Amino acid sequence: MHVYTNPAGSGHSHGPGHTGGPGNSRATFESAHAGPDEARYEQAVAQFLSRYATSREHSSQELWAALDAACDALATSGAASEPQAKLLRDCVSRDIAQLASVLVRGDRREANAIARLAQQRGPLRLLVEALRLSGDAIYRLAGESGRVELRRAGEVTCAGTLSCPQCGATHRSTQSLLVMPCAGCGAAEHVKALQV
Known about the structure:
Elements: E1 2-5, E2 26-29, H1 36-53, H2 60-77, H3 82-105, H4 108-118, H5 123-133, H6 137-143, E3 150-152, E4 156-157, E5 160-163, E6 170-173, E7 177-178, E8 189-193
Antiparallel strand pairs: 1-2, 1-6, 3-8, 4-7, 5-6, 5-8
Helix pairs in contact: 1-2, 1-3, 1-5, 2-3, 3-6
């Protein structure tokens, strides 16, 4: 489920399934099926976990190699173009790094939010499983993260909340989603939190 909150209180058209109107500060919509980008993201994550689960040491190097192999397999099979596979790798790697960072350095509230989200079927659950397999490598993965909480329009990400740093609009999702420009102001960059 996706929820968009516009702090300015003006309604915006969100296409089919839009339930808000002018003056509504909250519009809720559910997508019956993930779009092609979300579906490819979910395929990449599932193939990644399958490959990583069978690796010998579950090191951070094996984790990144499993992600590379999963995205390469999507391109080779024709399920994604090479540029799409590269973008998917970048999107999944940012989500992995952010999850690792929050699980290692985050506070209890953030860790509990991840645990709640990971109870649902989907990519976030698989990414958390991969981090559980990584053992001590999670600390190295957390150390490799930079400003991983930033997401740009056109990227795909796992469940969480996207907030516009310019107007404060938020978009909450309990499933993977294609990041769109801010519905409130059109900004292309969002801050990602692993909470809904």
